[in-house]
Amino acid sequence: MQANSHNLSxxxxxxxxxxxxxxxxxxxxxxxxxxxxxxxxxxxxxxxRNLPGSPRPDRVLAYQNTPFGxxxxxxxxxxxxAYVSGTSSPRGKEFVEAVRRLASLAGAQFPEITPTxxxxxxxxxxxxxxxxxxxxxxxxxxxxRIYLEETRGVTGFDLPGLEIGYLTxxxxxxxKLKLSGFRKDEIEQSGILSDSRWEGRIIGPWRNTSxxxxxxxxxxxxxxxxxxxxxxxxxxxxxxxxxxxxxTSGNDLILVxxxxxxxxxxxxxxxxxxxxxxxMLKCDQIDSLNLSxxxxxxxxxxxxxxxxxxxxxxxxxxxxxSTAPFPVFMIPPENMADPTVPSRKVDPDLFIRxxxxxAYRMLLDKRIHLxxxxxxxxxxxxxxxQDMTDCQLVALIQEADAYSxxxxxxxxxxxxxxxxxxxxxxxxxxxxxxxxxxF
Length: 439
Fold this sequence. Notes:
By secondary structure, the chain is α/β, with parallel strands linked by helices. The chain has helices spanning 8-21, 24-27, 45-48, 80-85, 92-106, 117-137, 142-151, 170-179, 184-190, 259-267, 283-290, 309-321, 348-355, 357-365, 370-382, 390-407, 414-429, 433-438; strands at residues 2-3, 34-36, 39-41, 60-63, 69-72, 77-79, 112-113, 165-167, 201-207, 213-219, 231-233, 252-256, 273-275, 296-299, 328-330, 368-369. α12 (309-321) links the parallel β14 (296-299) and β15.
């Protein structure tokens, strides 16, 4: 059997992980796994206490619907790739060797590796990242460092560990890639030199959950570009997974808009931040999120006025995530508003830089369930300055009932719907819970 390192991810998902899940007790005997229906539970405490969060064995489970790793309840999701490689996101040779080891544990035949142009492109992309990262940390990256430190609050101490670079000159990058052994046609076909606007910007890779680079982003640091051009993406690049999914620590995620929002939160010690790279959540990003073993998701989009883009993005996210297979919470955008300048745009990284880490943690502590926030939005929609009229009450109940009917197609959501959505509605209506249940 022949394969290439690019489609090893497909080999993992289709062959290794299903086979591995069926034999976890023999593949990883150190855990003492016992199967209980559609999940395995660990029994050896001396092993589980060494995992993130130092959990008891009964908190360490492997579920059939997420066969690619362990769910550590109260801590994080640990992939088998990370477990066998000892690194959160193995890449290049480390990735290939981790797959090879998992194949052996699963009793699957590891395919013979045949290099392809896509493998070569990955090598080139990794070279671009390494070269621009070195540039950021060197003499020519001073402008990028000043922007990150003074405008975004990223300290010089954090920079070496972050996937950010600085692109001084496309011609200089071309020369360095040639010296690294890449041909002119390989460099041109990658698209990395196709946009002269990238010069003088900070840049970084966008990776999929396997650690492969699927896109590059660049960010203006002059403050002189139009909003639509602040971030530029690689021509032909993808956003099929949320930015940062490959390096999140923990299975409780925070969804933000901008890539630098996620990076800054991480540098402040707020783990689990992932970015859409825009205002609207994409369908393939939702699909990858549903398959990620996510424990919970907190939506924290920008505040840019009472009905700005962040608000519209929040409405869109509510619509798309109402039946997600994990709890979804909200930090209402208006909760980040600056009371002294209500019109001021505030994103998560600006909030944490101006208000402090403790204030941001308080925002997280006060987050509310998506269903409760949806109920508040419906009430606000039909409410006026005076008491709600009979027509408005009817409209509210009709719309609430329609939303409820959409959710109840998924019976597992029934309890959350009653606890958070209907409780908010009937409390507004002034009806007792017992009275409501009698209807």
